[in-house]
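In this section we walk through a basic example: taking a raw amino acid sequence and producing a predicted 3D structure, encoded as discrete structure tokens. The instruction is simple. Fold the sequence below.
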Amino acid sequence: MRMFLSIGSNVEPRKNLALALAELARRFEVVAVSPVYRTAPVGDADQPDFWNLAAELATDEPPLRVHLELRAIEDALGRRRNPARPFGPRTVDLDLVLAGGLTGRFGDLELPSGLVQREAFVAVPLADIAPEFLHPLLGTTIAELARAALAVAARRPEPLAVELAP
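The resulting token sequence is shown next.
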């Protein structure tokens, strides 16, 4: 099954994103990785900009298992969740946002993620690797969702020319 991740960091992003991609490749078949974008923080503006990208995995694992593996990678890379600042700085943020055409709740995971249709920092990198993929609830392509998210974005994602080798 095709699964798509939104990946971000604003704490040593070059290092932490490279480590996250290496861990993903160790655990899953990584089919595609988007370019990296500098994006404004959402929900908590008092922090550094994020580096965001998207990745496609090919796996037969159920979504909840993939979600739990992503949380384990975040924990291994030093992610600490602060309930007082849930949208604060992060070493790495790995979110499963689409899993084939699946919809619904899988444990604490909701698919598809509402971020795909709301946030340019998710939709734009996804459109780089899966522009024609159809959103399972909206029937709209990811490229169309990215254009719509850009039209209302307070600040457009800025492409970065960086390599993320671990």
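Looking at the output, two observations stand out. The chain has a mean pLDDT of 95. Residues 2-83+90-109 form a domain with the Alpha-Beta Plaits fold (CATH 3.30.70.560). In the next section we compare this with other chains.
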